[in-house]
Design goal:
The chain has helices at about 30-40, 55-65, 85-100, 120-130, 145-155, 175-180, 200-210, 215-225, 235-245, 250-260, and strands at about 10, 15-20, 25, 45-50, 75-80, 110, 140, 160-165, 185-190, 230. By secondary structure, the protein is an alpha/beta fold. It has one domain: TIM Barrel (Alpha-Beta Barrel), CATH 3.20.20.100. The strands form 2 sheets. An 8-stranded parallel beta sheet has the order 3-4-5-6-7-8-9-10. The longest helix has 15 residues, at about 85-100. The two termini are about 35 Å apart. About 45% of the residues are buried.
């Protein structure tokens, strides 16, 4: 995927187009979140990713209203938190999120984590939420192959997207191949590995070669391998930098080299331990 731009979208299996580059707002405090979202939208981002547990849905909603960008042009994602999982509680949780966001629908509603004993009932609630038009599409987050296999055995709807930690130092090729096989978009959160590998000498070498920042190299890699990618930032200059990745292309040789960097280096929670 070399011919990319900020307006590039990927088609989900639920017939909805997902803007490939988005803004994540995890750990963005209310005022910071509002300004970050407005900044991103002014730069051409059209995909905003939040969650109930982030505590900033209301600020995301306010930022969208104040941005001047039509709601229908924005791909808005939020997530069902663990404490709200289960059929009836999930149905209530979406209404709370919609009220905070100030909208009648989200474009994607995700199960945030594969909570044992509750994830399948939660998914059935998400199917109802989609049928009622409160979510245009539904998906999951932090689901491994075993969780996806279980879900598909129990229910009839294939998730449109699976949002997981994914970057050059954490490349779960088994999970990626399964998602491709089932038509599930893979969305990479923490594409910069929380900055913990940002100064890796191999990244620095490529940044010097392409005259780009280390972060831009990692984001460009995620885009070229076909992931939806949601780098998180509350800094307007970083948000701008993260989107300035469409004027260069990583060569086939460099893409092949990066594919060998996997270290199973996980910076967030580990869903592989969930039954």
């Amino acid at each position: 995927m070399s011919n990319l731009e900020i307006t590039t979208t990927l088609q989900s299996n639920q017939t909805i187009s997902v803007p490939q580059l988005g803004l994540g707002v995890w750990k963005s405090r209310p005022k910071e979140c509002l300004e970050a979202v407005k900044s991103a939208l002014s730069l051409g981002y059209r995909h905003i990713d939040t969650a109930a547990i982030y505590g900033n849905e209301a600020d995301v909603g306010t930022a969208i209203k104040e941005s001047g960008v039509k709601r229908s042009d924005i791909f808005l994602v939020t997530k069902l938190w663990n404490a709200d999982q289960g059929y009836d509680t999930a149905l209530r949780a979406i209404d709370v999120s919609l009220k905070k966001l100030g909208t009648d629908y989200v474009d994607m509603y995700l199960i945030h984590f594969p909570v044992s004993g509750k994830r399948n009932d939660s998914w059935k609630a998400l199917e109802k939420i989609k049928a009622e038009g409160k979510a245009k599409s539904i998906g999951v987050s932090n689901f491994m192959v075993s969780h996806l296999e279980e879900l598909l055995k129990e229910t009839g709807t294939v998730p449109a997207m699976n949002q997981v930690e994914y970057h050059p130092f954490l490349q779960d090729t088994k999970l990626k191949e399964y998602c491709i096989q089932k038509g599930i978009l893979l969305e990479a959160y923490s594409p910069l590995a929380h900055g913990q590998k940002l100064e890796d000498a191999r990244v620095t070498k490529l940044a010097s070669q392409y005259k780009k920042s280390n972060a831009q190299i990692l984001i460009r890699w995620s885009l070229q391998v076909g992931h939806v990618v949601i780098p998180k930032s509350k800094n307007p200059e970083r948000i701008r930098e993260n989107a300035d990745v469409y004027d260069f292309v990583l060569s086939d040789a460099d893409m092949k080299e990066i594919s060998t960097w996997n270290e199973d280096f996980r910076t967030c929670w580990d869903p592989t331990t969930v039954e």
